[in-house]
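Checklist before submission:
- one chain only
- standard amino acids only
- sequence pasted in full

Submission:
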Amino acid sequence: MDKIGIIGCGNMGGAIAGSLQMEVIIYDSDSLKAEQLAASKVTISVADSLQALLSECSTILIAIKPQILSTLYPEFRALESSQKRWISIAAGIPLSVLTEQLETEEVVRFMPNIAAQYGAAVTAVAPSQECSSTLREDSLQVASSFGSAFLLPETQFSAFIGISGSAIAYVFSFLHALAMGGVEQGIAYPEALKIANATLKSATSLIDATKANPVELATRVCSAGGTTIEGMRALAQGGFEGLVMRAVEASSEKSKVLEAKAANQGK
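Returned file contents:
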């Protein structure tokens, strides 16, 4: 794939456009926003209209709000949407609605998180059941250009939100709590936060390098009668693991409710 069209230049659409190493044609109802984005990179150009973008590109990434998308289906169909390949990041609009409204199985859903603008997103990628292998591979390449991509069935999107999309906020809270613990013990918050953040990165680097289970790595750190086991005991007494699991469950269940509501509105 050497060219892609992107409809919508908001935070996510703009971040994706800026990360791609290919020709990108963009369209946004806010022409000034589109022009500013195009000025930031030579590979990005602005289509004069939605119709112009659709006529120039065979692969289209939808980066607009679900309620706006629902109003555009007739226009897409009028311009032979069935002849295009589609990638959607419209929150909550399931593949069943997208394939029906776009009249094609050449559809993939993305669910990225907010780190896309820094090239560090974690993105779930779900192709429709009859999607071609070519679009599946191309969409994974697109998602990998702004972070990590995970091929998942759409039925696991709610679980993905629980351990990634929403969980990035849990990680922020954990880092803050670590830093505040450092403050309590005499380290100023900015320095404590830097140390906590570096520690998080070192921990994930160990998992990547060793492929070891986190529990195995944790037990390696715990020496008999030492400092780490005291901290682990405090976490266990506070129900740390159970609390995190409940947070994942809460976000996942809420996602299912919102997905069902958005699906009905997106038809």
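Reviewer check: The two ends are 30 Å apart (CA to CA).
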